[in-house]
Design brief:
Layout: H1 12-16, H2 23-38, H3 46-68, H4 74-78, H5 102-112, H6 143-155, E1 160-163, H7 173-185, E2 189-193, E3 217-218, E4 222-228, E5 254-257, E6 261-265, E7 269-273, H8 276-293, H9 299-308, E8 317-318, E9 326-327, H10 341-352, E10 367-368
Helix pairs in contact: 5-8, 6-7, 9-10
Length: 373
């Protein structure tokens, strides 16, 4: 009925009481029961556990493969641009389904899935248009593509740009810096995922970034998002921070939900995915929501509303990547809080109606660093 029974469904509690009859089933029971107990998920079913475990292993295998081996040079065969020439910019195609469209579709659903239809997920914002720009194939992120994608979005009317991607090298960062500055000058907010390496990005490179190379200038239209979690979503970690999320007291502005996020995937289906790639669009959706009701807000004011209204978790949190190091969220993020759409709307309303003066009242609010990136 249990181990070795194809198609059977049982919980860890059921397995604990199961009487084995052979050495093979006893061995299988011991292994599965250990995994249930070690992860504190005795009430989960074997189906849920295997699905979650398989998803996690697959994700880690892909990350490891990308780090250890260079991707196939598909760009030379398909894109056919000169990747070292920034002026060579008229390339690409409209095949948004190329490769693996799962990631971008899931991100888009978090922001803008139809609300109130009783199907799948309600997107964060109910009156928004998505501009799909396929700039990053898996494991081959080029600075040129990022820079041109930002400029394209700005030139075609975007108010908020979600950037659920990242890397630890940026050979042509000045191209990206110029595009970020262009978006800043046009009043466009950029929301970037902090990354999934449970690293302190105050001391570890994570690109793109708002800090300009060979300069002390830091873009003011930029929000970096770490992944928060329901402690029950990761039983083996059990914290309001996600075990995988990057963090940084200076570099990560705010945390937002990023574990087991249920959203749209190709084929009119829905799946749970996790990552700061899922946390960033939650913030992007709230930014769009603020602009829906208060369209005159500047990117700097939207950023201010989101960060200043973030709510500290009720307990200390685990530092991602550690087993028992507990800290205040303010020790590993700038705002010290988790995104709260309701409080952000209240603050945006107060600023827009003049009931609260914004400390950021011009579109050219500037921050500077004292060190060079």
């Amino acid at each position: 009925m249990f181990p070795g029974c194809i198609g059977c469904r049982y919980t860890g509690n059921d397995l604990d009481t199961f009487q084995t009859r052979t050495s093979e089933t006893k061995s299988a029971k011991t292994w599965f029961l250990y995994m249930f107990k070690a992860n504190k998920i005795m009430d989960w079913t074997n189906k849920a556990f295997i699905s979650d475990f398989t998803e996690e292993v697959s994700s880690e295998e892909k990350k490891a493969a990308v780090k250890e081996s260079a991707p196939k040079d598909a760009r030379h065969e398909i894109v056919k641009d000169n990747e070292t020439d920034f002026s060579d910019r008229y390339y690409g195609n409209n095949d948004v389904m190329a490769g693996e469209p799962l990631h971008g579709t899931h991100v888009s659903g978090i922001i803008a899935a139809e609300r109130g239809n009783g199907i799948g997920i309600d997107g964060i914002c109910d009156n928004v248009r998505i501009m799909m720009i396929r700039a990053v194939p898996n494991g081959d992120e080029h600075d040129k593509d990022i820079a041109l994608a930002i400029r394209y979005a700005v030139d075609n009317g975007a108010r908020v740009i979600n950037m659920s991607f990242g890397k630890n090298l940026s050979p042509e960062k000045p191209w990206v810096d110029s595009a970020v500055k262009y978006a800043e000058s046009k009043g466009v907010l950029l929301v970037h995922a902090a990354g999934n390496d449970n690293a302190d990005v105050d001391s570890t490179d994570n690109f793109p970034s708002p800090h300009f190379r060979h300069s002390t200038y830091t873009a003011s239209n930029w929000i970096t998002v770490g992944a928060s979690s329901d402690p029950l979503a990761e039983p083996g970690f059990s914290s309001y921070t996600a075990s995988f999320s990057n963090y940084g007291k200076a570099e990560v502005d705010v945390f937002a939900p990023g574990t087991r996020i249920y959203s749209t995937v190709p084929g009119s289906k829905y799946e749970n995915l996790q990552g700061t790639s899922m946390a960033a669009p939650v913030v992007t959706g709230v930014a769009a929501l603020l602009l829906e009701y208060y369209p005159n807000l500047t990117p700097q004011q939207v950023k201010y509303c989101i960060e200043k209204s973030a709510v500290p978790p009720p307990t200390k949190v685990k530092v991602p990547g550690s087993e028992d190091k507990l800290v205040s969220l303010a020790d590993i993020s700038k705002s010290g809080g988790i995104l709260n759409a309701y409080e952000a709307m209240k603050l945006a309303s107060a600023i827009s109606t003049g009931k609260k003066e914004s400390p950021i009242n011009t579109p050219h609010y500037i921050t500077k660093r004292t060190t060079k990136p």
